[in-house]
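Batch manifest, entry 17 of 40.
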Amino acid sequence: MRVLHAVTLHSPTHAFGGPVRVALNLSAGLRARGHDARLLALGDGFDGPLPGEVEGVPARLFRARRLLPLGFSGITSPALLAAAGRIVRDADLVHVHLARDLVTLPVALAALRAGRPLVLQTHGMIDPSDRRLAKVLDALAVRRVLRRASAVLYLTGHERKDLEAVAGPPALGGTVRLVNGVPAQQPRPTPTGPPRILYAARLQARKRPRDFVAAVPEILRHHPDAEFVLAGPDEGELASVRALIAELGVGERVHCPGALSGAGMLAELRRAHVYVLPSVDEPFPMSVLEALSVGTPAVVTASNGLARDIADASAGRVVDGAAGLAPAVRELLDPAVNEKASAAARKLAAEAFSMEAVLDTLLAVYGTSYADNQA
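Output type: structure tokens
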């Protein structure tokens, strides 16, 4: 089957975050099973020509152009918009990682016009909103594609309710729960040397990187040789983070290497004793799944979509707020506790979030969508 995965933006800094990682993981898994899966997206931040593949997945990237000062919603490519109809006609099925933007919405509409089966996956990005732009896009396109899609994939019951609220009557297309999957990884070696605590996510307010920095002094009081890595592309918080590092006098212990490549992310996770993601209302973070897959215990907040799984499996710690971060990290730095949590993390990733199980579910959705479209 020829499957086109459309996502908003791919860049060397991984600025668009989890949806791109999901699209790449799914595409790679589909290709391993003999399907022709390809990626369609904007490309930004590359020196020279845009690449023709990403991590072994053939990719059609178009140079990003900013039309409006509205974050990802304000970027597009006239060339992509002009070519969308032809590109979707070359696919047997179009899988769009949908956001309210000028990339994925036009591709979804093009798939409907071309009569191609359309599968939508929204990653928590489509929810009820009072913003003027959101209301306009919902009226012009979002409701139409949600209602006419062959299938709409959701992560949680909360996300499904949000999608139903946005779509309104008549109902959504067929809904199917699909968790994010993570490829099997080699386990990390037993951590050695000074404790190493990692944050690896976008530096934006919702991710709470300042909470990570604020926990550093207390951890250092008990582990004065500890090292902290705060990695990720800046989305408005880097200056504030650096100011707090200076204010707390922990500049020699906190390193800010910027964005990590996919390989760099896995390398850092394997070196880390503990992974910390303080963000709130995080639907289903790929970075946490990747940490679990290599056996690095994770500390997350209670509003994280993986919190219950981590707590039930004892694969890390769940905290109510910023004040709980340092005590949770300190607990996981005990070697015996860390070893037990590491084994639990690997087991959780393998049993609940394996890529093979996710692909089985996805291919069943594809088969039904394609058959219904041909009927």
